[in-house]
Amino acid sequence: MGVAELVTDDLVAAYSRDGAVCLRQAFGPEWIAKLAAGIERNIAEPSDRGRFWDRDAVGRTTFYDSQSWLHTREYRDFALRSDMAEIAGRLMEVEAVNFFFDAVFVRSAGTQFRTPFHQDEPYWSVEGFDTCSAWMPLVPVERASTLEFVAGSHRWTQKLVREDFGALTGDDRDRVEFDDDVVPFPDIEGHRDDYEVLGWAMEPGDVVVFNARIVQGGSGNLAPDRELKVFNTQWLGDDVRVLFRPEGMDPDNSAVMTEVGLSSGDRIGTDLYPQVWRREPANA
Ligand SMILES: O=C(O)CCC(=O)C(=O)O
Predict the structure, then answer these.
(1) What is the per-residue pLDDT across 61-116, written as a single tens digit (0 to 9) for each?
(2) Distance 187 CA to ligand 1 centre (A)
(3) I need a surface site. Which of 62, 89, 176, 264 has the fewest CB within 10 A?
(4) Does 164 score more than 90 pLDDT?
(5) Sequence ranges of the domains in the chain
(6) Atom of ligand 1 nearest to the CA of 115
């Protein structure tokens, strides 16, 4: 099935309304095997951003790394040659899509550690509504262990302070502090009935695409015999501009962006954030 058939009008409408959709069997077994091999190499040779977010009392771990596509050929192939850029472009209803970065979240069997509810884009080194992530488990994931989303929260307008991930992971690179003009993050877990919480049991090949402003969290909570390996990519569309935030960024790309000549207000581009897809003119 081509991307135009996969990304139906109903999915585009649901993405715009809810901020997150699940596409079933968007990628075949070759991509899953390739990315799984990439993750194994990535864990064995982490980048200098690689770290354990959590290690519990019995040694179960949550590993995180990002922007590893620069030295992991399997990730680079996916970023530049898979259908993901076009899927993102059609869901976001934009003219062109740039690759932003990859991230991996690897939980060993039985890990309970859940990612707190948070938003992504308000902490990135760019700003824009046309931003999305594609969360792809490479192993089956149960509903109780999947990433969850507050439907419609990508359109919330208040600036919310998120939980200090630095305090949670013990790593200063996860720390972002706001000092003024902010609203405390709502206690989603404690008031789940007040929100429409979306989440899907998934099989390898399925992908959840979500607006980077949506409130998202969860994952973890794994059964004793279940591990979770997730390959995640982030994509940028038409309205995105570079923004170096004085309050801090996560991940903080300002140094590498500055090195390649990008500064606040610029359109995204360069070989570090390549344009991967552009919509064909209607009369082509
Ligand atoms: O998979 C997870 O635990 C976290 C995912 C996430 O927060 C993200 O993709 O930004």
Answers:
(1) 999 999 999 999 999 999 999 999 999 999 999 999 999 999 999 999 999 999 99
(2) 18
(3) 264
(4) no
(5) 3-269
(6) 3
Block residue for tokens 């869901």: 91
Cα–Cα distance for residue pair 240/44, rounded to 1 Å: 34
Structure tokens at 179: 């000092």
Query: 168: CA distance to ligand 1 center in Å?
Result: 14
| Nearest-angstrom CA–CA distance, 152 and 127 | 19
Enumerate residues 6+ apart whose C-beta is below 8 A from 81. none
Q: Which of 63, 108, 133, 135 to mutate for ligand 1's pocket (most ligand atoms within 8 Å of CB)?
A: 135
Taking residues 189-213, report their average pLDDT: 97
Residue 29 CA to ligand 1 center (angstroms) comes to: 23
Distance, CA of 196 to CA of 14 (rounded, Å): 14
Ligand 1-lining residues (CB < 6 angstroms): 105, 115, 120, 133, 135, 147, 216, 219, 230, 232
What pLDDT is attached to residue 179?
Answer: 60
Q: Enter the tokens of residue 138.
A: 């490479």
- Residues 229 and 250: beta-carbon distance below 8 Å: no
Homologous superfamily, domain 3-269: q2cbj1_9rhob like domain (2.60.120.620)
CA of 147 to the centre of ligand 1 (A): 7
In one-letter notation, the amino acid at residue 73 is R
Q: How many CB atoms lie within 10 A of CB 118?
A: 20
Nearest CA-CA partner of 120 in 223, 256, 20, 269: 20
Q: How many residues does the chain have?
A: 284
